[in-house]
């Protein structure tokens, strides 16, 4: 049995943007949205295979970044001067637009 990979979306999304993310994921990824959990990040979010973010320091605490086990962190912004790279595991592949 194959376990479906997961994507944590940390940015707020309109319904249209969610539909686009879900369509792009094509059923291969289980998409989880941080906005759906008012209590904040859950352990399973920190263990997602990948994360999609816009302004990570506002969306996720530095403590959570230290504990995250994502394999890929994709930013939807080009400028990353605000990102605290020292708190992200060096094993995480980072991509930006």
Structure characterization notes:
The chain is an alpha/beta fold and 97 residues long. The protein is 26% helix and 22% strand. The chain contains four helices and five strands. The N and C termini lie far apart (34 Å). The relative contact order is 0.19.
Order of H and E elements: EHEHEHHEE
What's the count of strands?
5
Biggest sheet: strand arrangement: 2-1-3-4-5
- Note poorly predicted spans: none
Shape: globular
Kindly name the structural category: alpha/beta
Proportion of residues in helical segments: 25-40%
User: Helical segment tally?
Assistant: 4
The overall pLDDT average reads 91
Radius of gyration: 13 Å
Strand content: 15-25%
Span between N and C termini?
A: 34 Å
Main sheet specs: 5 strands, parallel
List descriptors.
single chain, 97 residues, alpha/beta, five-stranded parallel sheet, 26% helix, globular
